[in-house]
Amino acid sequence: LLVPTVLSAQAGGPPAGSVISHPGTSYAPVPDMDFPGDATATYRFAWALAAAADSSHQITPGFRAPARVLNALADDGIDPLGVHLAVVAQGPAAIAMLDDAAYRRLYGRDNPNLPLLRELHEHGVELVVCGQTVVGRELSRADFPDFVKLSRAATVARATLAARGYVFNPF
Q1: How many of the other CB atoms lie within 10 Å of CB of 106?
Q2: Which of 113, 125, 126, 171 holds its CA 20 to 30 A away from the CA of 147?
Q3: Which residues share a beta bridge with 86?
Q4: Cα separation of 99 and 79, whole Å?
């Protein structure tokens, strides 16, 4: 069953989701699923990302994870307004959140991550960048889109989200 799904995804490109439409942001349908998301729950889930894509031309894979969760829960009938997601990026993953002008200075091209990051933000995903990475790489707040929040440090952002009840994805 997995092989046809993978082949069809390769033939037509990565699947888009029902809430976040960016390619590669949807899980394959699962026939006879009997453990769906809980429509009565409030979800608070976060990711701590340090790794970026292998190339400056690619989308950072970790940015697709919250989109997949949002889409999967919506497909299970969960109202996206009850789903609170966050991404805390440091190191190379933080650089993948730069605005186009700053990314162009580093890599000579627009940031391929921005369309997905914008779509995540538009659907309520909190995007936070590590201030220590920003200072250490001689960047500034102005190098990031307005919708990306700047924390003192990734550790502080993770602790703050945990205090707010967010659970961090260990993968």
Answers
A1: 14
A2: 171
A3: 46, 126
A4: 30
